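User: structure tokens for this one?
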Amino acid sequence: MAHVRKMPRKKSNGKSGHAWQVRYRDPDRVEHSRTFRTRDEAERFARKVEVSKDEGSYIDPALGKTLFIDWAEDWLASSAAGLKPSTVSGYRSLLNNHILPVFGNVPLAKIRPVDVRWFVGHLSEQGMSPSRIRSTYFLLQANFKAAVESGYIGRSPCLGVKLPRAIVREMLFLSAEEVKRIGTAVPEQYRALIYLLAYGGLRWGEAAALRRKRVNVLRRRVEISESLSDVDGQLHFGPTKTHQARQVALPKSLNETLKSHLERYVAKERDALVFTSPEGDPLRLPNFRRRVWWPALDEAGISRSVRIHDLRHTCASLLIAQKAHPKAIQQHLGHSSISVTLDRYGHLFPDQQDQVADALDEVIR
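Assistant:
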């Protein structure tokens, strides 16, 4: 049981006074004490301690004194094993540049919902983009959620926070004729890459990590099981975005282009990369964009606002135009679920409302 007792103390004016001390044991039988100015405060705390012990929700006050910076470092270190290097690098950047300067030296238990709401508003005032604000907040939220689960604090201060609406960047879609113009404009060494991105629907990292052993020209299949990322100047080969491998069927014309590419530009080793720099090194997106992509767009008469990733969007739009089933499109593009496909490209599918209404009319008749 928690015990309340009267304690003598010196007031700031030098006169004698008294305070009220609560002595109690935590669930591990470790003794603690806290001092309050009034008996009511002490008794409320004593009751709260006993109730939390009975309910199993007791929080050790000492853990709540952990500085956020210490908690965040431990959290990131323990989480890194299951994350991609690019994700860890992104988290580290958000922590160092935005979160730790504000919350780093504050104890976990001292951070309140009003502090988090102020923080989000401050980021907006500093001109941070809505998507970046959301990423920063969700990282902060993940830290506090883990702190609650680990018994460091009773509840997360990430409550009642209104986030700015994320701005979805407009997708740009190319026609098959425009894809051909770009493919003709790039050096021949990269023609197969352009067509594979546009008609195979690969992500850049998947194409950059593609190896000879993953290409089966006899079956017209490419196995996508690896991705290449550039993190702080360091290249990392790892799993795909969804951590799942998939088989991509190739159109006959693309298969022939890829077969010729393998014969002319790819080393014979099974692990040889299919697409490399002129020096034989793995492709880096910024270099490729500057040296190959933008000059090709200029020559093809296409705006530089078109991104390399828009070739993937182009693949989706062309498949939809050919009335491919959403499930087939999901598998071709390697989305984690069909809902991702429909959320991203649903607006491109023909409007089915009239067909549904006509079908119901037939039933009614």
